[in-house]
Amino acid sequence: MSSDAERSEASETASGEADTTMDPNVRETPAGKATGDRTDTLLQTDGLVKRFGGFTATDSVDFSVDEGELRCLIGPNGAGKSTLLKLIVGTLEPSAGRIYYDGQEITDMEPNERVRNGISMKFQVPSVYGDLSVRENARLPVQQFADGAERRRRVDEAIEDAGLAGYEDVPASALSHGQQQQLEIGMAASLDPDLLLLDEPVAGLSVDERTEIAERIRRLNREEGIAFIVIEHDTDFVGEIADSVTVLHRGDVFREGSIEEIESDPEVRRIYLGGEQ
Fold this sequence. Notes:
The chain is α/β, with parallel strands linked by helices. It contains 11 helices and 10 strands. The strands form 2 sheets. A 6-stranded mixed β-sheet has the order 6-7-8-3-9-10, with helices on both faces. The N and C termini lie far apart (41 Å). Mean pLDDT is 88; it is low at 1-22. Residues 1-40 are annotated as: Disordered.
């Protein structure tokens, strides 16, 4: 998490006012009330809407993630899952609503600033550069935020944690799909995020590769304290990693609970597990 000084500075930058959330005589900001020092909530969306022409992809979504939580996001195709993640990282702009993160409002914040504030994401399709080596790919996300020995440390750790030690000079195009997924998770984690978003990280992988990804997510969550939002259709995989599960349906939150509660809910089974089309 950000230090109090860093959080205060970021709040001043975002709002033009000093962070007064700890002063009982001053009214708390909505961002501070939702995700500030007095709460365990790291991320909160408030009435988040995204429209594409006449189609509403997310419809007044109220969604939150606590510090260190491992949350999975499931739902039928077209439910708004990927749109929600892109709104959180800033690659899409909301049509309405607010996003609060770590005591400040980030609704209008640029994606690179969200990264600096601790949010990172691995998209559904691996975005490694095939013509670049594993090391060159691993260097890309950190080169704007670290240099010298610190940059080398982050790059080496990303490669080792991805299980790619010895592949440093291999072109990324020569890696298997599973290895590319591992590399990109390492690239996202190398930014030392407080919140890491993964969009279908095990799509198209073998059983053994899914197990390796699950173990890695749990390790990053346990040892590094990283909170996760993971989109995944494979409910067996969700059951392996999730602290809690949110079901999206028709652009809004439909149910939340443990994987056991979600799987036993007849309405969830109707719309997702067993199949409303």
